Amino acid sequence: MMLTGLPLGTLLGIFGGAAALTLVLYILRLRRRPVAVPFAPLWHSVLGDRDASRLFSRLRRWLSLLLQLVLLALLAFALGDPRPTGSLGSGRNVVLLIDASASMQATDEKPTRLEAAKVKARELVAGLGGSDRALVVQMGDVPVPLSTLSDSPSELLQAIARVKASDTRAELGRALELGRDALRGSPHGEIVVFSDGALPEPSPAPELGGARLSFVPVGKSGKNLAITAFSVRRYPLDKSRLEVLAEIANTSSERAEVELSLWGDGAIIDSERLHVEPGARLSRFFSDVGGTRRGLEARLRYADGTRDDLPADDRAYALVPERRRARILVVTTGNTYLEAALLLDEYLDVTDVKPSAYPPAGHFDATIFDGVAPPPATDSGGLIYINPPSAGSPVKVGKAISEFGFDTWDRKSRVLRFAALGDVQVAAGHAFEPQSDDKVLGASDNGPILVAGTRSSRPFIALGFDPRQSDLVLRPAWPLLVLNAIDSFSETDASYLSAYRTGEVWRVPVQEGARDAELTLPDGTKRSVPVQDGRAVTFGERAGVYKLATGTDETRLVTEFAANLADPDESQILPHKTLSLAGKSAPLPEPGGGGVRRDLWALLVAVALALSLVEWFTYHRRITV
Amino acid sequence: MGILELFQRKKTPRGEAARVELFDDEFQRKLEMLALVSRRVFTGRLRAERRSKKKGSGVEFADHRDYVPGDDIRSIDWNVYRRFGRLLVRLYEEEEDLSIYFLLDCSASMGFGGGQKFDQARRLVAALAYVGLANLDRVTIVGVNDGVPERLPTTRGKGRIFTAFRFLERLKPGGPTDLGEALRSFAAQHKRRGLAVLVSDFYDPAGFEHGINVLRFEGFEPYVIHLVDEREAAPPLDGDLLLVDCETGDEREVTVTPAVLKRLQTAFSDYRSTIEQFCTGKHVPYLAADVSTPFDEIVLRALRRGGFLK
How many CB atoms lie within 10 A of CB B199? Predict the structure, then answer.
């Protein structure tokens, strides 16, 4: 017998105190109510018989005290929560990993696969033996234990009821590691996975430390259509127009005729019927989409109107980055090509000044220095230097070079996005000598000719030649380069948000100075999220449109962003009847040991209650007084 | 009713109010009825209102005895002499007024439980005294406890009944009971022997028989009326109590249970039976008077039983 509640010393203290108090109460003389009688000798004759049995009377009084002490002892013992020693060591220790990934929202099992898994988990808990213990873990992208390693069925059932499906994938490897750690040191360990089997096999397979792995499959069919990708962008040269990409997949085993529709701000924009082969993916562009202010949504369904088994991936959301008018200052003596490039973006407010008039009054998001490099003013924003002179250039101007081109450039750079620079010819220019923390975006064989960096916390981009000395100005790459450079400065603006993917840690830009933010989930619930390095950090579990609020009442800024499941693996909902780990298939769990749960404290309290009733009865029947 | 009358009513003495309550008109009507009944019961048998045991010169024939010289020859029964040839003298019961003593227990136990026992006892004494006075007997009422605290001097005649009422109203229960000592004092004070009606609950720590024996040994004719209150046999008590004797102040701790109450009831019944058996064994008339029984019914029972009226 072991005490799992209060320690023995504490129990003895409690019992000693209570017993002493009871003893004092018994020793103290009872204050009796005086009652007058007409003839006491009559009572004497009656009580004389009791005098003869006074010893027995006293004994009965002591019996009553003994009964009270036994009652106290039982209650004190119950506080210790005694358990048979064998029940702690010989029973099974089971970790229940309940898959809460997006595929568990499939409705091929009614109402959902997750609910079916919960039913099976409850059955397993009901079948646990009296000496078995279990731990309930919600297996999502991050495994979350929802109970302790407990033998209490009620605690386990409550934990099972709290399992919720998310729009993420399930990380089996992490969950198995958690189960292994929880079972470390416990004999007869077993990890039971309740899942549809659509789980990425962890590589390398985690060592389970001797624990047995079991698998309870759920799911019947895999009829599913999914939007596996959904993105939107503005045309670089016409940012009022949008281009939308949607990728759909048919994970079922039959050819499907589907209807893909595009919705903007709650109204349908476009719809198209497509045939998707079994197991195939199909990309579809919606080009030249206009008229949408903010929100876009893609919806997918069978052409005959029927629904698939997993509604979670039949919708995808995207929010178009909000455009605001950027104030651009151009310090030049005159550059037609530069002016033409800037005219392509209607959202730019361009101010031209002569170098002698710099700096003008006002605040600017970006300043373009064309052939000059005066000391930048405070409100100049990001700086773009075109063919800067040595004096004042943020990056050291090196040797003069001629007849060169872009031999290498950073194709992933936002500044050079969509720009084809391979055959640009430049007559003359200068090579830069950038600092170590500067980034070379483009270079000829003679040295860097396009450099980005930061000086005094102010970003800059420097081009080492006059574009008019090249054919760059005759190519689409020129306006792209200029506008991308301007966009790259405004990328850090708090109002710019992109779409996110569930199952990842999101870092959403917020306005400067914000220390925390309030996130409103798609279902309307709100929670506070921390802000680190100017970005709100949270783990994304749900697809949909989120709202992020920062600042106080006066400076409150609410921005929106969208998140999608967009996980082709998770859309593969065809259930697996087996679960393999390191080449070994996990069997069904062993049946429970049965037996009655030995919650001795409840039994002790029941006995104490019964004794109390007996004591009450005997007292009022004047048996023990 | 005027305001003045209201004030006058407030000035009514307490004793008067109590008298009205204890011996009201209804009570007095019942007394008249009882007096009539007593006469009808004994019609034809009682010529002189009361007869003594002494034989003498009355008119009622009692017995014969042999003639001895010196006897009044007018008393010789010549008819007997003619038939049997013997000279016998006719004896007549001497006509003498009887002395009736009402010995009323005034101890504290008689006032226990709201004084119903004491009230019943006073009504019984008043009723029997009225019967006695109506029959021209000499009636004396004496209050006893452990002595003789109160005494109504010997009186006779029906008109004196109100004196008896006032005396009875004045009596208050109190003090311990010692009937033996009290009746010894009574016997010493009253040389004229007669009927001694002892009205008591006989809660005498020294023993109920002492008082009765004193009366017997002193030449009185005891008549026992035992006041009984059945509620004292089954008091509404329960639990842990400290019992206090209302007369002696003796204390006794007790836990009252149904079993104890049952034994008390048995003891009470046994005590009553013991008194009755004692009286029967000593040829002393015994009458149990329950407080819940109307007093006139008890008086009638006493008259029918005999022993009170000779």
Answer: 26
Residue A439 lies in a domain: yes
Q: Are residues A143 and A215 in the same domain?
A: yes
- Judged by DSSP in three states, B140 sits in strand
Which residues of chain A lie closer than 8 angstroms to B271, CB-CB? Answer: 42
Separation CA A93–CA A128 (nearest Å): 10
For A273, the token pair is: 């019927």
Which residues from A are below 8 Å from B when comparing CB atoms?
30, 32-47, 49-50, 622, 625
Confidence grade of residue B107 (pLDDT, cut at 50, 70, 90) = very high
- B199 and B88 both lie in a single domain: no
At A473, list the tokens. 């100005």
Cα Rg, chain A, nearest whole Å: 39
Q: Write out the residue range of the structural domain in which residue B36 sits.
A: 14-44+97-230+282-305
List, as one string, the DSSP characters of A172-209. Answer: HHHHHHHHHHHHTT-SSEEEEEEE-S--PPPSSPPP-T
Query: Which run of H or of E encompasses A157?
Result: helix A153-161
pLDDT of residue A441: 94
Residue A266 lies in a domain: no
Give ipTM to 2 decimals. Answer: 0.76
Min CA distance, B257 vs chain A (Å)? 6
Tokens representing B10 are 């407030």
Q: Which strand ranges, in their side-by-side order, compose the sheet holding A225-235? A: A225-235, A238-250, A281-289
For the cut 80, the answer to whether the pLDDT of residue A590 exceeds it is: no
Distance from CA of A607 to the nearest CA of B (A): 28
Question: Which residue pairs, CB below 8 angstroms and at least 24 apart, start in B279-285?
Answer: B279/B212, B279/B224, B282/B212, B282/B216, B284/B212, B284/B216, B284/B222, B284/B223, B284/B224, B285/B222, B285/B223, B285/B224
Instruction: Summarize pLDDT for A297-335 with one digit per residue, the tens.
Output: 899 988 888 888 888 888 888 887 666 678 899 999 999
The CATH number given to whatever domain includes residue B128 is 3.40.50.410
Whether A459 and A547 share a structural domain: no
Over its C-alpha atoms, chain B yields an Rg (Å, rounded) of 24
pTM of the model: 0.47
**Which H or E element spans position B274?**
helix B258-281
